[in-house]
Design a protein that fits this description.
Layout lengths: L2 E10 L2 E11 L4 E6 L5 H9 L6 E6 L2 E2 L5 H6 L2 E3 L12 H6 L10 H5 L3 H20 L15 H14 L4 E5 L7 H16 L3 E5 L3 H7 L2 E6 L2 E6 L1 H4 L3 H8 L20 E12 L2 E12 L3 E5 L6 H9 L3 E8 L2 E2 L5 H7 L1 E4 L12 H8 L5 H14 L1 H5 L10 H14 L4 E5 L7 H16 L3 E5 L3 H7 L2 E6 L2 E6 L7 H9 L8
Parallel strand pairs: 3-8, 3-9, 6-7, 7-8, 13-18, 13-19, 16-17, 17-18
Antiparallel strand pairs: 1-2, 1-4, 4-5, 9-10, 11-12, 11-14, 14-15, 19-20
Helix pairs in contact: 5-6, 13-16
The structure holds adenosine-5'-triphosphate (ATP) and magnesium ion.
Length: 508
């Protein structure tokens, strides 16, 4: 029994998001779908799972058309999916979030659950036991009783994979499951996906992390502007010049990074944090962090998911409760509310486009962040954005929520640039971007630093950080576990020790 999309086309008003796309996956197979940001990957998933209507074409399961079935009926036929940006109930526990995926597998009726009949109780116990098993398999068991609202986005996606598996699907569709995961977490996820495939589950995988794709997928379909550009075995397709040019960029060649690191004389510290702490409610997550961001400098903040990187950035931005001192140009800003820190030039781009107004158009979003610019500056910025993010420039009159995940990431960055910040706090900017865009992003960040702005860059992608950073700080469980030169990032073993907090030595 195969799951197939046959000549699938989807149109959103004037945008042809998908044209005549055919992909298929059989039991036990792993088929990847890759392509630039906005190329139609999530739309394809939405079409297969019944979240958008096809303009033309067919979705078939075992030769039978699913076109007329609603999304929830397709779930009953064995299709389960994860979302690029999962919606969560922040107060739900991790265990509850995963258990929610098991509701459809229950054999008992509503009254069994309501009246707590023996059958209802047995079923509830089975679902909970299964959820614990899934949490163990994904390395998440320790988090079971924590709240979803406290989880970093990478972990939320992993939990969403757990929820999707709970439904015991015949076919599993994963939309960028590895985005925001550390190397170790990616290995756990890979093993789980392999194991599912061995048990006969067919997997459709959308993922920008190309290593992850080549390690797992049997076949790969490449989308470009909603059309199939290429299909084949990942290692073969990866060698084709068109694919390298359009999708991989310099990550697919031996060329050095697009923007060789300029010799920026890292100047005097622009921002100095001393004894910085960060707390969520009564729980302290960062302890006594000392950090300096020099003018013209890029400081990479590394660490596992949950190490405290986002909380530390939130503390600097004034969005997370904190203690300690933050000097900007020698002036204490720690006591100031968030909006005053923005005025002082501290600009925070949260993980997953948190600074975007989803129901406003792209140009309106940009206008809001440009309000501090005038005349000439505005003109320069317009050309700069057009040059840096041509994709975004084509979508100026679309509502931000209609953009693809990666396009929204570009908008978030463009908005930050438009604010002319003094210190830029970037939380995992590569998350969700196609590899070729890394070159653009690297170029943008290097240019920002070249203009005298200090950049604090939290990243899971250590190779990307190494190309840009002048200095590296690793956090483990809220403490600085290592300070070093970016050259150290080649020493994977040492880095791993710092990630686990085993290595607290401070290097050069
Ligand atoms: N509901 C919608 N209304 C209007 N346009 C949409 C809608 N959903 C997607 N689009 C547009 O369709 C195109 C394809 O988007 P899609 O989300 O499928 O891209 P993607 O390949 O998943 O990209 P990414 O890698 O950035 O996640 C984009 O140009 C996007 O802006
Ligand atoms: Mg997408």
């Amino acid at each position: 029994m195969r799951l197939e999309a046959i000549d699938a086309s989807v149109r959103f008003g004037g945008i042809q998001a998908l044209s005549d796309v055919s992909v298929s996956v059989g039991p036990g197979e792993i088929t990847a779908v890759v392509g630039a940001n906005g190329s139609g990957k999530s739309t394809l998933f939405n079409a297969i799972t019944g979240f958008v209507t096809l303009e033309k074409g067919e979705i078939r399961l075992g030769g039978q058309s699913l076109n007329r079935l609603s999304a929830h009926r397709r779930v009953h036929r064995g299709l389960s999916r994860t979302f690029q940006t999962p919606r969560i109930d922040p107060e739900q526990s991790v265990l509850e979030a995963v258990m929610a995926g098991g509701a459809g597998t229950s054999r008992s009726r509503l009254w069994d659950a309501c009246l707590a009949t023996p059958r209802g109780l047995r079923d509830a116990r089975d679902i909970e036991a299964h959820a614990w098993q899934v949490l163990h398999d994904l390395g998440l068991a320790e988090l079971a009783h924590q709240q979803m609202g406290e989880m970093p986005m990478g972990t939320v996606r992993l939990i969403d994979v757990g929820r999707a598996i709970m439904g015991k699907p015949a076919f599993l569709l994963l939309d960028e499951p590895a985005a925001g995961l550390s190397h170790a977490e990616q290995e756990v996820l890979k093993a789980k996906i392999r194991h599912l495939a061995e048990q006969g589950v067919g997997v459709l995988l959308v993922e920008h992390n190309f290593r992850f794709v080549t390690d797992l997928a049997d076949t790969m379909t490449v989308l470009q502007n909603g059309k199939v550009l290429d299909q084949g075995r990942p290692v073969e397709v990866a060698e084709r010049p068109d694919f390298i040019r359009l999708y991989l960029g310099s990550t697919g060649t031996d060329r050095p990074a697009a923007a060789p690191k300029p010799t920026r004389a890292a100047g005097a510290p622009l921002m100095t944090c001393r004894g910085l702490t960060a707390s969520h409610g009564r729980i302290k997550v960062c302890f006594d962090v000392d950090l300096e961001v020099p003018k013209h400098g890029v400081v990479a903040l590394l660490g596992a998911n949950g190490a405290g990187k986002s909380s530390l950035m939130g503390a600097i931005a004034g969005l997370v409760k904190s203690g300690g001192s933050i000097l900007l140009d020698g002036q204490e800003v720690h006591g100031l509310p968030a909006h005053r820190r923005v005025e002082k030039g501290i600009c925070f781009v949260p993980e997953i486009r948190g600074n975007i107004f989803p129901t406003l158009r792209v140009d309106e979003n940009l206008e809001i962040s440009q309000r501090r610019l005038s005349g000439d500056d505005l003109g320069t910025l317009k050309t700069e954005l057009e040059e840096l993010f041509p994709r975004l420039h084509e979508r100026l009159d679309s509502e931000a929520r209609m953009l693809s995940g990666g396009e929204q990431q570009m908008l978030a960055l463009a908005m930050a640039l438009a604010q002319k910040p003094r210190v830029l706090l970037l939380d995992e900017p590569t998350q969700g971007l196609a590899p070729a865009v890394y070159d653009t992003l690297e170029h943008v960040i290097a240019r920002i630093a070249g203009q005298g702005i200090g950049v604090l860059l939290a990243e899971q992608n250590a190779a990307f950080a190494a190309r840009l950073a002048d200095h590296v700080v690793v956090l483990a469980e809220g403490h600085v576990s290592l300070r070093a030169d970016p050259g150290l990032l080649a020493d994977r073993e040492r880095l791993m020790r710092a990630y686990t907090g085993a290595d607290t030595e401070e290097a050069a």
